[in-house]
TrEMBL record:
Localization terms from the record: Cell membrane
Gene Ontology molecular function, alphabetical: ATP binding; metal ion binding; protein serine/threonine kinase activity
UniProt entry keywords in alphabetical sequence: ATP-binding, Cell membrane, Kinase, Lipoprotein, Magnesium, Membrane, Metal-binding, Nucleotide-binding, Serine/threonine-protein kinase, Transferase
Pfam families per UniProt: Pkinase
Active site per database record: D103
Lineage: Eukaryota, Viridiplantae, Streptophyta, Embryophyta, Tracheophyta
Domain of life: Eukaryota
Species annotation: Trifolium pratense (Red clover)
Protein name as it appears in the record: Serine/threonine-protein kinase PBS1-like protein
Family as reported in the entry's similarity comment: Belongs to the protein kinase superfamily. Ser/Thr protein kinase family.
Composition skew (Basic residues), residue ranges: 323-333
Length: 333
């Protein structure tokens, strides 16, 4: 059984995305990237054939639960997050040159029969900076809500752009909320804006857990997961962790036994730890690494076409900001 995807025949962009996807999936292979079985380019037909992923997308199991579909438990959520992060790690740190995915979202994470995640849809992917360059410049594209703020405002793209998008999806995994949900009250419609004040107060962490989990999760794991999400969502790109550091933290959470795993009760209170005022969540327990990537990125719009790769790579002042996370320090691409 295979899955067949037919691209929009109209316009240069569809053709370009087809070529990018064929190129990337033909050259790069990893257990957490979807496998391209074949393709067809004849006349105006553009068809991609993938391995079949029987459990659909993460979005199907997290945000669009059909009747009768059982919600994902905590351990499965952590397993999916860790596997998706490993897919990004391969693109950022093992591909040469590095690849920036640029469209990391729940609907692009496919699940096999054992809920192992695989990244799909590489039409917007870009080759990352090489040599002395700190970023690539391109027209802003992607999905509104998932894009790093600096990328949306400047068009400067780095691997840390993907790390921000990962943080948004990880927040969706933990909370069960959509990144943009117009059915909620206005102050709760944007997931990241809603989460920011809660991430500064550990006493409110349990308010962020998906109600469908029914309080069945280890409290410490929830705290650690939210700390990782907060790190990935830092405003300044240089203060976000490398994806390899995120993988280290999430592999620990995915393998962690529930022996600390008391359920949380609604009236349980927790002592709060000191937080930083500037939203950098100094209570987080992961130590972030400065990328040599450059300026910051901003919330993006559904950016439509044109992948103009203007090479106006701006020189960053190589000023790295002090990391506030505690993982390992390494250089990013």
């Amino acid at each position: 059984v295979v899955a067949v995807k037919q691209l929009d025949r109209n316009g240069f962009q569809g053709n370009r995305e087809f070529l990018v996807e064929v190129l990337i999936l033909s050259l790069l292979h990893h257990p957490n990237l979807v496998n391209l079985v074949g393709y067809c380019a004849e006349g105006d037909q553009r068809v991609l054939v993938y391995e079949y992923m029987p459990n659909g997308s993460l979005e199907d199991h997290l945000l669009d639960l059909a009747p009768g579909i059982k919600p994902l438990d905590w351990k499965t959520r952590m397993k999916i997050a860790a596997g998706a992060a490993k897919g990004l790690e391969y693109l950022h740190e093992q591909a040469n040159p590095p690849v920036i995915y640029r469209d990391f979202k729940a609907s692009n994470i496919l699940l096999d029969e054992n809920y192992n995640p695989k990244l799909s849809d590489f039409g917007l992917a870009k080759l990352g900076p090489t040599g002395d360059k700190t970023h690539v410049s391109t027209r802003v594209m992607g999905t509104y809500g998932y894009c790093a703020p600096e990328y949306a405002s400047t068009g400067q793209l780095t691997t840390k752009s993907d790390v921000y998008s990962f943080g948004v999806v990880f927040l969706e995994i933990i909370t069960g909320r959509r990144v943009i949900d117009n059915s909620r009250p206005s102050e709760e419609q944007n997931l990241v804006i809603w989460a920011q004040p809660l991430l500064k107060d550990r006493k409110k962490f349990t308010q962020m857990a998906d109600p469908l989990l029914e309080d069945k999760y280890p409290i410490k794991s929830l705290y650690q997961a939210l700390a990782v999400a907060a790190m990935c969502l830092q405003e300044e790109a240089d203060t976000r962790p490398l994806i390899s550091d995120v993988v280290t933290a999430l592999e620990f959470l995915a393998k962690k036994k529930d022996d600390d795993g008391e359920k949380v009760s609604k009236d349980q209170s927790f002592s709060s730890q000191s937080e930083s005022d500037n939203g950098n969540n100094e209570s987080n327990e992961v130590k972030n690494d400065d990328d040599n990537d450059d300026d910051e990125e901003e919330e993006d719009e559904d950016g439509d076409d044109d992948d103009d790769d203007d090479d106006d790579d701006e020189d960053d002042d190589g000023d790295s900001h002090n990391n506030k996370v505690k993982i390992t320090r390494r250089h990013s691409q």
